[in-house]
Design goal:
By secondary structure, the chain is an alpha/beta fold. It contains 17 helices and 13 strands. The strands form two sheets. The chain has a seven-stranded parallel β-sheet, with helices on both faces. Strands 10-9-8-11-12-13 form a six-stranded parallel β-sheet, with helices on both faces. Helix 4 links the parallel strand 4 and strand 5. Helix 3 crosses helix 4. The radius of gyration is 22 Å and the shape is globular. The protein binds uridine-diphosphate-N-acetylglucosamine.
């Protein structure tokens, strides 16, 4: 008689650009167990355009979403509420066994909240990171999602400490490594083939890369003016490629700063695709950023990274990696830049378990937890002669 199992239906939630990068290896891994797992890919539509979403699905080999919620952009509360409103109907109808959310974006918290209220277990990948900066919408999203989650998958040891301090039971915490680095490793040969350096007329290790998108940096005119000062300083030493996020582009225009951002040493390019962007940072002399994921990617590439924020929620990139927190402090930036140009900057090491196998570990933990459920349901089906 053919064995009958009830498959584990997992809602895999993505919304914004970094989510796509992190979900790709998880979907690939889940698809290795078609007899046990039915992944349902849900795209909230938080990021929706060609450069921010579609291009990433194509390059990362993500399947077309099973569910698309079309929420689009909006103020934080409205965007979060809209995602909740739309996902609620889908969860009630589809009754997933588990909801898997990633990182710290509004889609993460919105879907976790809805799942918690209808008592569906939640897995949070990249749990426990803390900036302790409540001005960041991402910090609110992280803390609340972790409080609701049943499985907390962490990328570094600091995350476990943070979670234990907040009273999360240690049985729920699993140190598995970094799915963003899985994607980097899975795509290394394609990244190397990117022609972006040639296209921009750049020589390896002779330029800087800049990215900015955090609201606490780019939503304030005075901060953008400080950035301009930093760019003037760095631009004296290296040409700078600024891969500009739509939020930042809009603010530069709205604050009337377009002319100030025109500098001989600065090339502004609109948001790049995954392979081109990773190639660009992998061959840079230095990367200046306010992003979280880029602090991790530069650490793996052993490329100096100056983080233009007060703090990082990813301290391992500083203690083991190539990251330094400079904020927008010109003295600190100048000092580090000098070390970089004289090839005296620290060299980093790859953090533990950032080995390209995080997704395998995550899916194993989930299967192990639910395997008993499978055995029981199988016995039940047999007992009932189904
Ligand atoms: C979101 C995440 C942030 C993540 C970032 C990656 C939250 C709170 N923030 O910030 O943690 O690091 O994504 O990019 O969830 N826009 C487009 N095209 C799109 C999507 C957005 O032009 O496809 C524009 C919107 O019109 C808006 C701006 O980008 O002006 C902001 O988008 P939004 O999704 O609200 O937040 P991000 O700043 O991208």
């Amino acid at each position: 008689m053919k064995k009958i199992y009830k498959k584990l239906k997992i809602f895999c939630i993505v919304g914004a650009r970094p989510n796509f990068v992190k979900m790709a290896p998880l979907i690939k891994e889940m698809k290795k167990y078609p007899q046990f797992i039915q992944p349902i890919l849900v795209h909230t539509g938080q990021h929706y355009d060609q450069a921010m979403s579609k291009e990433f699905f194509k390059v990362l080999g993500l399947p077309r979403p099973d569910v698309y919620l079309y929420v689009g952009s909006g103020p934080h509360a409205k965007q979060t509420a809209e995602i909740m409103n739309r996902i609620d109907d889908v969860m009630l109808r589809e009754k997933p066994d588990l909801v898997l959310v990633l990182g710290d974006v509004n889609s993460t918290l919105a879907c976790a909240l809805v799942a918690a209220k209808i008592r569906i277990p939640i897995a949070h990948v990249e749990a426990g990171l803390r900036s302790d900066n409540w001005n960041m919408p991402e910090e609110i999203n992280r803390v609340l999602t972790d409080r609701l989650a049943d499985f907390l998958f962490t990328t570094e040891l600091s995350a476990k400490k943070n979670l234990l301090k907040e009273g999360i039971a240690k049985e729920k915490i699993f140190f598995v490594g970094n799915v963003m680095i899985d994607t980097l490793k899975n795509n290394l040969s394609k990244i190397r083939q990117s022609k972006i350096l040639k296209r921009l007329g750049l020589k390896s290790k002779s330029y800087a890369v800049l990215t900015l998108h955090r609201p606490e940096v780019v939503d304030k005119k005075e901060k953008l003016l400080e950035i301009i000062d930093v760019l003037k300083l760095v631009g004296q030493k290296l040409p700078i490629i600024f891969s500009v996020h739509p939020r930042t582009q809009k603010n530069i225009k709205d604050f009337g700063l377009e002319d100030e951002f025109k500098m001989p040493s600065l090339t502004i390019v609109s948001a790049l695709g995954y392979l081109d962007f990773l190639r660009l940072i992998s061959r840079a002399k230095v990367v200046l950023t306010d992003s979280g994921g880029i602090q991790e990617e530069t650490t793996v590439f052993n490329v100096p990274c100056l983080t233009l924020r007060h703090e990082t929620e990813r301290p391992i990139t500083v203690t083991m990696g190539t990251n330094i927190i400079t904020d927008l402090d010109k003295n600190k930036i100048f000092k580090q830049l000098k070390l970089i140009l004289e090839n005296r900057f620290k060299t980093g090491r790859t953090p533990p378990l950032w080995d390209g196998k995080a997704a395998t570990r995550i899916v194993k933990v989930i299967l192990k937890k639910y395997i008993r459920f499978f055995e029981l349901s199988n016995l039940f089906l047999k007992d009932h002669n189904i």
